[in-house]
Amino acid sequence: MDLFTLIAAGIIAAIAGVVRGITGFGGAMVMAPPLALLLGPKLAVPVILVLESVAAAPMLIQTRHLVHWRMIGAILLAACVTVPLGVLALVAIDPAITRRVIAVTVIVFAVILLRGWRYAGRPRLATSVGLGAVSGAMLGATSIGGPPVILYLLSGPDPIETTRANLTLYVAVSSLIGVIMLWDQGVFDARAGWMSVLLAPAYYVGLLIGLRLFPRFSDTRFRQFTLMLLIVVSTGILLA
Question: 226: which residues sit within 8 A by CB, 6+ positions away?
Fold first, then answer.
């Protein structure tokens, strides 16, 4: 790999870390399109999942007491069941097709939420399980498994701190399961491991910057920032 590609990948990882530190998620969505172009999807996906799962450790220590365990637990269990299906799709199908489908879906839901729609009732078990199942398959195939769960949680009544803690836990655990499945299928190899090590410092620096910026965001600004991020990044995925 040439030096320019490595530097470009490091810059992308740092920006993704900032976003992850502010929102509790979003790292994979920021990294996936450009890293897939730079490194190829089969290398980019395992690297992104490693960074997402390991980077969440300090954030989980900070936010674990805020997690809504009953709701996020159902989502996680369903996601863990379907991650292997997504991994099989990554191996067998062109990931660009899946990314474009995801991009259209995220853009539509983000625009709906920006227009003012909010979830007013209590989260239902069936909805949580269904969203977790879809998200798990998406994560295994593209490393971008958060959008369905993100939109679900952001539209709910929980305060910003609880939403951020839930997203942090979900991204960490589901990404770790994805790494294990990719290793089992031979996609996570020595090359992916070394690339993860090389990009980890840049990602962590960005994460620390994002954590410092987080207190500057009010509840309204946080939701607006997050939804606009989804639209911008998903449009990039669609056009990539």
Answer: 23, 26, 150, 154
Which pLDDT score, from 0 to 100, does residue 197 have? 92
Are 5 and 142 in contact by the 8 Å Cβ rule? The answer is no
Residue 110: pLDDT band by 50, 70, 90 thresholds? confident
- Cβ–Cβ < 8 Å for 146, 49: no
pLDDT averaged over every residue in the chain: 80
DSSP secondary structure code for residue 122 in this structure: P
Residues 6+ apart with CB under 8 A from 11: 202
Largest CA distance in the chain: 52
From 123, 138, 139, 110, select the one nearest 52 (Cα to Cα).
139
More confident residue, 221 or 86: 86
Cα distance between the two ends of the chain: 21
- Is the pLDDT at 116 greater than 70? The verdict is no
- Which helix (DSSP H) or strand (DSSP E) does residue 197 occupy? helix 190-213
